[in-house]
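Good day; I would like, with your permission, to put a structural problem before you. The record follows directly beneath this note:
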Amino acid sequence: MKLLFDFFPVVLFFVVYKMHDDPHQGFMYATAAIIVATAIQVLVLWLRERRVEKMHVAVLAIVVVFGGITLALDDPIFLKWKPTIVNWLFALVFLGSQFVGAKNIVRRLMESKVTLPGPVWTKLNASWVIFFVVCGALNLFVVYNFDTDTWVDFKLFGLMGLTLVFVLGQGAYMMRHMPAEDDAGGAG
C-alpha cells in the first residue's frame, strides 16, 4: 500500500498525460496534476502522522519549482529533469549518511526489522547510492535521446521496474547475510 501511495503522483502524471492527444498539452496538464498530487501526498502524510519526512518536503519543493518553471515557460525539459535531481539528491543523502552519525540511512531505516553484520549495512547503503546515481543518469539519457511519449512511459514503468528489481535484489542479498536462527526445539 505504501508503494502505491509513494507512486501516486507519478501514476497520476502518466494517466493525465495519456488522456490527451496532443503530447505537449498533455504534458502541461500532467505537470499541473503532479504538483497538486505531490502536495496532497505531503498533506495526507502530515494529517496521518503529524509529521513529514524531510525527503517528502524536498521532493515537493523540487516538483513545485521545476513543475512551476515548466508551466511558466511552457517547456517540458524542466520537469523532465526532476527524476534526475531527486535521484541524485537521494544519492547524496545516502552517501552523506555513511559519514554522519553512527549508522547509515539504510541501517537506520531497516535495523529494527532485520539483523545484519555491520559491513553488510555499508554495502547495502553504497549500492543504493550507486542505484540512485544510475537512475538519474538513465533518466537524462532517455530525456535527450527519446521523445516525450517514451520518457513518460520510462518515468512510470522503467524507473518503477528498475526499483522493483533492485529492491528484490537487495532482499536476496540481505537473506544471504541474515544470521541463521538457532534450532532451540531440536532433537534431544
Observations:
- Residues 148-177 form the longest helix (30 residues).
- The chain has two domains: 1-78, 81-180.
- The radius of gyration is 19 Å.
- Helices lie at 2-18, 23-49, 54-73, 77-80, 82-97, 105-110, 118-145, 148-177.
